[in-house]
Specification:
single chain, 201 residues, mainly alpha, 7 helices
């Protein structure tokens, strides 16, 4: 499917937003959150660039499922490390095990349901963390109210990640054509919500 001019423009905006967040939007944090956020936005940047250069068909590559797991896991680790000190080590261990489990189940032949279950658990926990934690701490007054935008971005990226993941399993929740058409806009909106939340929160 050929990228429309509008989708190319949306991808370019995504690259610019992710580049800004990597270079200037995450200053002042501890080392681990900075590293985690840099990885997450770096993957978003690279993904948008690859789609812009190679076309939307790059989403068909097998590695997409693994890459789509790095983003929510990295963001979730950064948020937990900043705002839930007592859960830091436990959550970091979960993220490492979750990523390795997704990588393993996507790299070798497994019973058909196991990769889906592993993916759903990993994405589900990371996605709920990114969705609920920013909204909760913003409601508690620990951050400015607009930090809740990070939570909205988390909800959206969780949906996008699951759509891509189920597409790769051959059991898409939405048709492939619809996902491909909407993906650049969804990626831009997700990135914009993250950047706005971190900047204004």
């Amino acid at each position: 499917m050929k990228l429309s001019s509008m989708n190319r423009f949306l991808l370019l905006l995504t690259v610019l937003l992710a580049s800004y967040q990597v270079s200037a939007g995450i200053d002042g944090f501890d080392v681990l959150p900075i590293t985690a956020y840099t990885i997450a936005f770096g993957v978003i940047l690279v993904a948008a660039l690859l789609i812009f250069i190679l076309g939307i068909e790059v989403l068909d590559a097998p590695i997409v499922v693994i890459l789509s797991t790095i983003i929510p896991l990295s963001l979730a680790v950064g948020l937990v490390w900043q705002h839930l000190a007592s859960w830091r080590t436990s959550y970091l261990v979960f993220a490492i095990i979750g990523f390795l489990a997704v990588t393993l189940t996507r790299s070798i032949q497994m019973p058909s349901r196991l990769p889906v279950i592993v993916l759903a658990i990993t994405h589900g926990i990371a996605g709920m963390t990114i969705f609920l934690l920013p909204i909760f701490i913003a409601a508690q007054g620990e951050t400015k109210p607009l930090f809740a935008l990070v939570g909205l971005g988390g909800a959206l990226i969780g949906v996008v990640g699951l759509l891509l993941s189920f597409l790769k399993t051959g059991k898409p929740l939405v048709s492939r054509e619809t996902i491909m058409k909407l993906f650049p806009a969804l990626l831009l909106l997700t990135t914009a919500l993250f950047v706005a939340g971190f900047k204004l929160g």
